[in-house]
Amino acid sequence: MFSKSAIEVRDLSKAFPIYSKPHHRLMQMVMPGPKERWFREFRALKNISLDVARGETVGIVGRNGSGKSTLLQLICGTLSPTSGEVRVNGRIAALLELGAGFNPEFTGRENVFLNAAVLGLSHAEIREKFAEIEAFADIGDFIDQPVKSYSSGMYVRLAFAVAINVSPEILIVDEALSVGDEGFQRKCFARIDAIRDSGATVLFVSHSASTVVDLCDRAILLDHGELLMQGTPKQVVSTYQKLLYAPADRVAQIRAEILAAGTNRIASSKEIEVVDEEGPGFQRAADATVEEDGIQAYWEEGLKPSSTILYEQRGARIDEPHLQTLSGEKVNVLIPGETYVYTYKVRVERTLSNVRCGMMIRSLTGIEVGGAVTAMSKDAISIVGSGEVLSVRFRFRCLLASGTYFLNAGVLAGFEEGEEYVDRRIDVAMFRVMPYSDRLATGFVDLDVVPQISVAS
Ligand SMILES: Nc1ncnc2c1ncn2[C@@H]1O[C@H](COP(=O)(O)OP(=O)(O)OP(=O)(O)O)[C@@H](O)[C@H]1O
Predict the structure, then answer these.
(1) Are strands 418-433 and 309-310 parallel, antiparallel or unpaired?
(2) What distance in Å separates the CA atoms of residue 380 and residue 390, rounded to the nearest whole number?
(3) Nearest by Cα to 247 from 192, 191, 301, 292
(4) Mean pLDDT of the residues in the chain
(5) Is the pLDDT reported for residue 49 higher than 90?
(6) How many angstroms does the Cα of residue 65 sit away from the middle of ligand 1?
(7) Distance 224 CA to ligand 1 centre (A)
(8) Rg (CA), the chain
(9) Domain 5-90+169-287 classified CATH 3.20.20.70?
(10) Which residue's CA is minimally distant from atom 5 of ligand 1?
(11) Hey, what CATH topology would domain 309-433 get?
């Protein structure tokens, strides 16, 4: 399958001039002396080497400003490198940032013809494919309006419709999909899948961990213009998230650790050919479960909620809420399917009756995903004396989709007027669930559904 590289990048660097004052740009133009420079250089990409094999789908991840778009633009030829080389073998269709590719004064129809011609299609070929492109974009009469009157969603629809209907050998997508609505995104992902299956090479930038894990054979991590790591999507995404959530004073050390692991070196064509001979093996590595990848749950210092709400305490104090493994190791990045314990202490500061405790897991958007209480109210602990400490443990299996979640904790006690919170904390801790590529379940919670499909005779 991977007989020859579709994209070869060697020692690629890109520096942009940065002018501290607007008129310095003009000065540079009129007085570009060899001694005096009116700008300083900003190195957006530093000595990147990379091979993308034919038929491979590679995801690029990295923090904002790490150089992802610059790399894609250099590969597509819309930017020229300061040094280094890019070689592309095959017809390339790109969906770069909004604004690239279409002429705003021309209508959608005219732009389709122009764009497809730039991509190497003859007039007759474009005419043949036009109906399909128009149907995929689904923008109605706007197809005959100037593109400058389009919403960003319409623009992406049309740009994507062209890019994927010209039978590209190499498809490059830069996060553009995040602009479209969910229905359109799904349609696009289905199409990208079909393009992949037809043997094309796909290179795309995404901030979505699950998209990279779901779609890619391999991923690369860029940071400050450097290629820090390449490997299986799960390993790269998990390292990327570690970097993303690291406290500022830990970032340099984490970067150094990633670089020391030496996974940033180029996967040479030769190595790719070896992989090719063992095609299914490569697939196995990409499809391996997180456990098989040797990734374990771990503690990430920077994963601290900034949305915590503390309710008024009325004789009890929740202390040290955290997640841990069954062997007691503190963790906040979890492996899906594994069992963990959410635990906290309750320091009781006055005698309380009918005490019970609770927990809740909430999604990033605040949806209550699941929770529990330690007992029904009739079975609550009848009396807890002042100075006593309760140890509360909720053991649970992590059946959640990849993503970020928040934890609540609460202590209830009985009063004359009924049961009330004596301490309650919203978003007191947060955790992340690692991506899992073989997940058939959709939505937040894995219901252990056994799916079946058959052709009815
Ligand atoms: N034309 C330019 N002139 C000066 N600096 C630029 C230019 N284009 C990009 N940069 C800088 O180069 C760096 C890399 O930019 P790039 O857009 O490639 O990052 P990115 O990883 O795609 O970021 P994001 O995730 O925010 O889209 C950034 O610091 C950016 O400010």
Answers:
(1) antiparallel
(2) 13
(3) 301
(4) 83
(5) yes
(6) 5
(7) 10
(8) 27
(9) no
(10) 16
(11) Coagulation Factor XIII; Chain A, domain 1 (2.70.50)
Q: What is the ipTM of this complex?
A: 0.96
48 CA → ligand 1 middle, Å: 15
Protein residues with CB under 6 Å of any ligand 1 atom: 16, 42, 44, 62, 64-70
Long-range CB pairs of 102-106 (<8 Å, 24+ gap) are 102/147, 102/155, 102/158, 102/159, 103/147, 104/146, 104/147, 104/148, 105/146, 105/147, 105/148, 106/146, 106/147
The confidence band for 130, taking pLDDT boundaries of 50, 70 and 90, is very high
Cα 79 to averaged position of ligand 1 atoms, centre (Å): 12
**What is the domain partition of the chain in residue ranges?**
5-90+169-287, 309-433
At 382, which amino acid appears? S
Cα 15 to Cα 37: distance, rounded to the nearest angstrom: 14
pTM score over 0.80: no
Residue 26 has pLDDT above 80, yes or no: no
User: Which of 330, 57, 287, 261 is CA-nearest to residue 171?
Assistant: 57
Nearest to 206 by CA among 95, 302, 287: 95
Mutate to test the pocket of ligand 1, among 42, 63, 79 (most ligand atoms within 8 A of CB): 42
Of all atoms in ligand 1, which is nearest to the CA of residue 71?
18
Q: Is 422 in contact with 413 (CB distance < 8 Å)?
A: yes
Categorize the per-residue pLDDT at 34 as very low, low, confident or very high, splitting at 50, 70 and 90.
low
- The amino acid at 171: L
Return d(Cα 234, Cα 219) in angstroms, integer: 8
Strand partners of residue 171: 93, 202
